[in-house]
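quick one, 491 residues, struct below
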Amino acid sequence: MRRITRRQLDRFARGPIVLPPAVLLIAVCILAPTALATHDGPPPNVLVFLADDQGEGDLSCYGHPVLRTPNIDRLAAEGMRFDRAFLTISSCSPSRASILTGRYPHNTGAEDLHQPLPAEQQTVAQYLRAAGYHCMSVGKWHLGDPQRRHWDRIVECAGRDTADQALALLQNRPMDRPFFFWVATKDPHRPFDADAIANPHDPSEVFVPPYLPDHPLIRRELAQYYDEITRFDEHVGLIRAELAKQGVLDRTLIIYLSDNGMPFPRAKTTLYDSGIHTPLIVRYPPLVEPGSRQAGLVSVIDLAPTILELAGVRQDTMQGRNMAAMLKDSEAPGRRAVYAEANWHDYEKFTRAVRTDRFLLIRNYYWDKPLWNSVDSINSVTWKGVMALRDVGKLTPAQKFLFVEPRPFEELYDLRKDPRSLVNVVEDPEYRQRWYGLRTLLDNWRVETDDAMPAERRRDGWTKEGIPLPHNQPWYDRFIEAGGKSSFEKF
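---
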């Protein structure tokens, strides 16, 4: 197994690698005129690879010093890698609903975890199926029953079975119709499989982000997380090979992304880049220059309207915007800002954020509550490692923030100086004007999208079994006292 140098780890600790504009220019070529006429020929097939809980930059093509992802790297080499693509929420089902509808979570009617997407919400699959596409989903469904009628085939399966089930669907589809294929694996969601790949990653070589403490239990789970990403990479390679065998690879628009941050504390369910910054790769030879890089800001609500535009299908329900110009030209500008939200995910939240190229503003409307982790994160050996180091006073200030009650109402981060959002500068006079400007952007977005706080009584926090948490002690102790299950106790 290859060894990782300290220099590589130090470089990655500053954040996922983003190439400067001067380097980006090297990859840019002039597109042939035929590349723009995407509607003159047959409509493209569409294949979306969606990882489940894969964090920012956690691919070797993004500069990760440890992960092995040759097949996804190949997609990037043959297409475009987006360096600043962002989710609208860091929670599985509302994120998927947002991606498919091209709408913000609070506008889908499915903003909370496990909330079914209402029947009246129109998805990219519904639009494409009405236009003659054969629509398939494999892996994790997580959209509820009302939407099933808009798909031709839905196969739910474990992460390890994703490729087998996907290949069967591809081989048995109607060959005379274009297809939309939603390959939504359960990798690398918890619980991790101990035998995910034949050549597991070495825990001693993993990269531990600075918001997590360095503990053997955490290293072990990070290695297992890597293994499941590599397993999905293997499945991506097998599915790509099947497309090539069928002679449709270069007529298929391929998109790769994740639904939220990695399933570790201060990542999944949060609005830091560790929660909402997603890998995004697009391969489509008629339009996208191989090996290109796009540094503009993108929101995932832009994907669905772009897919429909390239398929020649009109829509009038999506809040995202067509980003085909960014696919055609790696120098095309992106958004001025992207927006994200956090709602119910095991615990109550109402948090909103705006992110620009340089700054991130987070507003915690329930600031009296801590930075809740998802229950699957608490029920992990990683959490046991966090608690062990907390109890002996070995957490950094950024790591202790998991336990802070109350939190600041607003958090402001200068991502140029602090890409991991570890130092809140909201009280620094140097940033006062920037802070005012970001607050205005966030307020305007909330008004424009009709984002209102729920009027009903707030749910202050619940265990997985639905037991209310008491209020007279720190939140993790309340969780255990109220009946929360800690599966790590056996370790």
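The chain has two domains: 6-331, 341-490.
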